[in-house]
Amino acid sequence: MRPRPDLGYGVGLRAVHYPHLRAHDPGDWGVDWFEVVSEDYFDGRHAGMLDYVRAHRPVVMHGVSLNIGGADPLDDTYLRKLRDLANQIDPTWVSDHLCWTGVGGHTSHDLLPVPRTPGTLAHIADRVRAVQDYLNRPLVLENPSSYFEWDASEIPEPEFLAQLAARTGCGILLDVNNVHVSSVNHRFDPNAYINTIPPESIVYLHIAGSTDKGAYRLDTHDQPVYGMVWPLYALAQRRTRGVTTLLEWDSDIPPFPELVAELTNAKRVRRNLVDKFHTEEFYTEDEPIETIQQARRRPPDLITAPPCDDLRALQRRMLAGITGRRSANPAALVKDTPGLPAQDRLDIHTRGYLAKLIGHLRGDYPMLRAHLGDDLFDLFATAYIHAQPPSSYSLFHLGDGFPDYLEHSRPPNAPAAGLPAAIARLERAGTFRLAGAQT
Questions:
Q1: Residues 350 and 269 in one domain
Q2: Which residues of 182-203 are buried (b: 16+ CB within 10 A; e: fewer)?
């Protein structure tokens, strides 16, 4: 089994908790380490707080914009900023997601599933090796939650991850909550999924909360860990004989002590397993269930040429449909699986795409939102997003063109926006700040 440090139990470092961490002695924080969203700390942002935390706890970088599964060339600017931050803070690990986030210069700010074909596996493996060489450190990749399966997919996700780790030496960040969410959405056995992942490749675990939406489960990170996740977490801990754990909580974030209290559940689960870690009967190489074995159509190692042009075409069509062009007919690319029609599965991403971007614009322009009211603000914001789709990996640049859009364009039947444009310009320049806005 590959040597790996056991950092213990951590949480994400979020700005809402900066005051608590500053006000309390580090010995009383109650967590062993912190995970930071890589992009939030590029260009020296929050550097003072990051240095303060690093002086007292290990830190892990966790990105959302690497686009490792994308067909576009890797973003040189993004990689340079990622490397600069890693060299500056020397994190224990640098991680991201097995997904694609955009194509053709259009960024979705969503973690979209890849079509799991032998060619795509070879394509992603090449990119992982290139990133690892550039960073001069191994990359750790997480299994994301998913709501649709590509019809082109041939390789089950856990097998795809295992093959990728074997080819590249990358680590796996096993998000146990995501395994549960995807298993509900796609009707597979989550235990079999975890049993398929090579335990020696698992570097650390994520746990989080999700939301029951009736016909599917949504990965929301806005509540305590769902009860059915804990047995999966125990299984992952058994197979790894104990591994680092991170609690994710990204929306409706509670006070810091409540995060610490939620971590006690993870500690309790693992503590109950300690006596079993060194027994002869404890560790077994469980075979995946038959359905996973049957899903393999051909050994992925037999094909190495990545069909990048085909992948690019697929991703362009999918992104066009998710972001509003129904003429792209992306539902035809989706596997027919029980539970939800293909278009309903894609609509989950469409709603998430708009909600995330509108929410960010609301945060960037609180005074304008107060002036217009939510309905009118959202009307302008939606029209702006469709007219000028995001192209930067960073949401910090999403609202750069909003003042000009308000001045020169407007949705049909919307009132003129002369005063709103002026407010937006002043607000973008930093004239207006609402109390409690993140800096």
A1: no
A2: bbbbbebebbbbbbbbbbebbb
Lookup: tokens for 48: 């003072």
Rounded Cα distance, 143 and 172, in Å: 8
- Domain, as residue range, for 162: 9-294
Structure tokens at 37: 């969203």
Name the β-bridge partners of 9.
Answer: 245
Q: What is the distance between the alpha carbons of residues 317 and 313, in angstroms, rounded to a whole number?
A: 6
325 domain residue, yes or no: no
* Beta strands 100-103 and 94-97, pairing class: unpaired
In terms of domains, do 282 and 420 share one?
no
Residues 6+ apart with CB under 8 A from 254: none
The answer to whether residues 168 and 129 touch, using CB atoms and an 8 Å cutoff, is yes
* 89 within a domain of the structure (yes/no): yes
Residue 237 lies in a domain: yes
88 and 219 fall within a common domain: yes
Residue 304 has pLDDT above 60, yes or no: no
Q: Are residues 287 and 366 in the same domain?
A: no
Q: How far apart are CA 124 and CA 298, in angstroms?
A: 18
Residue 436 lies in a domain: no
Radius of gyration of the chain (CA): 22
* Closest by Cα among 4, 3, 30 to 17: 30
Strand, coil or helix: 67: coil
What distance lies between CA 304 and its chain's CA centroid?
27
DSSP 181-212: HHHHHHT--HHHHHHHS-GGGEEEEEE---EE
Domain end marker among 267, 294, 321: 294
> Counting every residue, how long is the chain?
439
Amino acid at 364: D
Q: How far apart are the first and last CA of the chain?
A: 43
Q: Encode pLDDT of 198-216 as tens digits.
A: 999 999 999 999 999 999 9
pLDDT tens string 66-98: 999 999 999 999 999 999 999 999 999 999 999
141 exposed, middle or buried (CB, 10 Å; 0-12, 13-18, 19+)? Answer: buried
Q: For the chain, what is the domain count?
A: 2
Mean pLDDT across 310-320:
95
With 50 as the cut, is the pLDDT of residue 132 above it? yes
DSSP-based three-state secondary structure for 378: helix
